[in-house]
Amino acid sequence: MSRAIKFIGINFLDNPSPFTSPIKVEFWYECVEPLVEHIQWKLFYLQKDESDDLLLEEVWDGPVNLGPHLFLLEADAPDPSLLQKRYILGVQAIKLSGSYVGQEFLQVCCLMSNLYDDENLRKEPPQSVLIDRVQRNISSTSPKIVRFPINFHAENAQGGGQAAPDPGKRRRIRSSL
Question: CA–CA separation, 84 vs 64, rounded Å?
Answer without folding.
Answer: 37
